[in-house]
Design brief:
Elements (H helix, E strand, L loop, with lengths): L1 E8 L16 E9 L2 H17 L6 H8 L8 E7 L2 H9 L18 H10 L3 H16 L61 E6 L8 E2 L2 E2 L3 H13 L7 E9 L9 E9 L3 E10 L2 E11 L21 E3 H10 L2 E2 L7 E6 L3 E6 L6 H19 L4 E12 L5 E9 L2 E8 L4 E12 L8 E11 L15 E4 L4 H9 L5 E6 L4 E4 L2 E4 L4 H13 L6 E4 L10 H10 L1 H13 L6 E8 L7 H4 L1 H11 L3 E8 L6 H13 L7 E5 L2 E9 L15 E5 L4 H12 L4 E5 L6 H8 L7 E4 L7 H15 L4 E4 L14 H11 L1 H9 L7 E7 L1 H4 L5 H22 L6 E7 L11 H11 L6 H13 L4 E7 L1 H12 L4
Parallel strand pairs: 20-21, 20-24, 21-23, 24-25, 25-26, 26-27, 29-30, 29-32, 30-31, 32-33, 33-34, 34-35
Antiparallel strand pairs: 1-2, 2-3, 4-8, 5-6, 5-12, 7-10, 7-15, 8-9, 9-10, 11-13, 13-14, 14-16, 15-18, 16-17, 17-18, 19-28, 19-35, 22-23, 27-28
Helix pairs in contact: 1-3, 4-5, 6-8, 7-8, 9-15, 10-12, 11-12, 12-14, 14-22, 18-20, 19-20, 19-22
Bound molecules: NADP nicotinamide-adenine-dinucleotide phosphate (NAP).
Amino acid sequence: MGTLLFRVSEHESSSPSSGQAPLARNIWLITLSARNERDLDLRISDLHRWAQGQGRDISLDALSRTLNAGRKHHATRRCWIVESIDDLLTALARRGEDAVLSRTPAEGRWTPAEAIAALAAADKAQDRRLALEALGACYLDGADIDWSQIQAACEPIGDLPSYPFARTSFWVRQPETPRGQPLGAAAGGFWDRDVSTLGRQGFAKRIGRADAFGYGVRGTPLLHAASYIGLAVAALRTLGSDPASLRLRRCAWAQHLVLDQPQALAVWLQGDQTEADFEIALQHDGASEVLMQGVARMPAGPAPTASLPIASFDGDGAWVSKDGVFALLAGTGIEYDAAFRHVERVAFGDDAAFAEIAPQPATAEQALLAALQVLECWIARQSSNPAMVSRIGSMTLSGRLGAARHVRARRDGGGFEIVIADADGLICAAMEDVGVFPIGADNDGAEPVMALTHYEPRPLELRAPHPAFPGGVLLFDNDERLADAMREADPRAEVVVVLPGEGFCKTGAASYRIDPARGADYRRLLDSLRQDGLFPSALVHRWAADAFSPLGAAMAAQLTRGVKSLFWLGKALLLEKWPRPARLVFWYRNRSGAAQPLSACAAGLLKTLTQESPQLTARVIDDRRSGDDARAAARMLADELGHWDDGDAEVRHDDGGRFRKTCGRLPAAAAAATVLRPRGVYLISGGLGGLGRLFAEHFASRGPVTLVLTGRSALSAERERELAGLTAGGSKLVYMPCDIADADSVRALVARIRAEHGPINGVLHAAGVLRDGWLADKSVDDFDAVLAPKVAGTVQLDLATRHEPLDFFIMFSSIVGVAGHAGQSDYAVANAFQLEFAELRNAQRATSERSGATRAIAWSYWRDGGMRMSGQDESLARSRWGLTPLATDAGLALFDRALCLDAPAVVAACGDPARISSILSESFHTHS
Ligand SMILES: NC(=O)c1ccc[n+]([C@@H]2O[C@H](COP(=O)([O-])OP(=O)(O)OC[C@H]3O[C@@H](n4cnc5c(N)ncnc54)[C@H](OP(=O)(O)O)[C@@H]3O)[C@@H](O)[C@H]2O)c1
């Protein structure tokens, strides 16, 4: 999306005393563009709403400057000429009608250069308007206009509506670092200077070697972790936060920035002055590459005070001097300019290092730099590999950092803890779960990891439920009984009910009907609430159908009322920029007590949504209670909302109480190789994909077996030759094209396999599709495309093979289905579906409705799979989650082990076991 607003200033050319109307007027050409009409309409609405919210306070100069800053323009365009704020509001309200420009004659239009020249030459308002109209006409024709030639400079506006965290953003100006004032220099660094003028969007900075504390590793100049934090803090200050009291969490470095030449960095922010996500990105060639991400909390009060026992800290006389410390670092290749060597001396213990640092007073960045130098030199004593910070799980900073004098670094679980204190031992800053990335060593400490999910009892400690529903509730329900019970329990509660209907309709002061399948209805609903000044803090969704049915029409209806409705609601919340934190509850009735894959998979969407928007938190309730008492249901909801801080992402209620889903790691164990029947027949969906081929090769090597590979594509000659090479051990490979999501095709496929090769002995379902993108931008077509092979595909494969003598039915799911992943809401749903489907099929096997061991394996990233991560995402997965790519041998061994386990849904990953465990458990108890 691109937006432009161009201003022409006219100067007073006649005096009021002349009796003529004054010619002095400002005229602006406003342009908006987007990828398609639908997006453009949304952009116009966003800008319109923003402009309405500003009242008369819009500076059209500032608006012009902001929207004109290096913006990229898409093909679908509108433009208007306005002379006032009223004009602007009218123009935006008219949306598609560029009435002013329609006056421009179609024939004989000017080129952009001619229009710009005419603009420069025009000295009358009328001429200027004509020139602007001509320019607007060029713009609508798709011309690439060099607006810089006519752009007037003034301060930009920071909070204009935009896509949050757009990969590429155009609203940031990139001021040059002033010469002689390198950022990060001893004079102050980023931290103590407000370098931003861009309010909420973030800011950009050009950074060169001089800004890097003279820091480098093995001769390569790099941007230090302390500088990243300084940049983030400076950007966060633009939200109005007070860096004197700041908590950063989940800071993760995707890659380190080499400063062999000046680099343009941008810091993007999403959130408000209480909590915000931040992302530091390298800007080049119009694209944005993420270097580091994190979450910031700005508590209202000062950071709590605590002390470090510095009296006991004498190092037994074994202090290493400053020279010794930096010689130690140099020995592993880490270097700093003399001016940035802030560690005075260090005493090393078995499990901790204590240090004194200088100068006093220090800048915040110097104190942080010194603390990280202590950690680096402690690691340097133990390893010849230089280490760089790759993550900081949590960091609390107080405004007293200038008085920093002591540092203690020590081991803490899988990471380190660092504490910075003043001369009296008063703690100024603390960092926990600090991870380092050894440079030069690959996959250090990586291990195969298996984990299982299960429910554990988690009764709620009952509190006085009044008021039961503070903040109000937006309830998507099928009738009004629960809403009535809620109002009875809390007469002051604002409960707005939304029933499924034919289309948007406000049926009462606090009741609506909307079409569950129409995305626009959800936006109209939120818009209508906004106009009524209603912003319920809890959104409770209860439309999902009661029991899973694999029949086509029933499944479509379940999707519409369930996870797809949640998809539209999530999009509407993001696009309508819901102005306050919201708690989302997806609550499905489950009287049968059986696994409900189409409902349970909502957890994938909600976990992703909460990662994409820090304003949102969520919970899925699997309600297996018998009875249908609305008052009991209202009490249950009040209890869940009243215990929101527990952070449980998936809970279950039955007549025995409340349970929460959690994830536990399994001890390492060897497993016997998967046994294939001699001359058995095995079907591999997605068989030409990366993992499909890898497993085909693996099964073929354990043959002789018959392998039927399937996918939608036709078989190329090259692939045919490749497959022929796998028949060496006597195994037979055939490829049969089939869309696994299509019931008739799958039935025909199974019939053909039976006819040509005999009964099927095992199914490996490895078909999958990716269409990554933020939920706000995601189209329903993308969502459907990603769900197709894993939802419809799984169900159809299972139905078509239910009478086959299967030894196994294995689905390749993903860890994204367990934990969610920003940008992959659809993929998270699809994989969560498979994990729950495995539970369902396993239960059917117990009642002999199905045969064969059922597994959904939630894989982490395979090194040699077909679905690829960029190097940057791979580094991020490594630093944020401790995940390393799964090597083929390790993956095959995990596969064998998964089949030996007596559990249908299994997580199989590779990396740092402690970190993976903690990340998995965090995805079920978000606040733990
Ligand atoms: N690679 C990893 O690191 C990783 C990690 C976790 C989970 N997984 C899961 O493992 C599975 C295999 O991954 P991969 O890396 O091998 O992916 P891949 O190389 O992209 O292969 C996926 C295959 O699925 C086929 N496919 C997609 N839709 C289909 C449909 N409707 N009917 C039939 N075939 C269809 C595609 O072939 P056509 O386009 O010809 O139909 C493609 O060959 C996926 O389900 C993925 O979610 C992979």
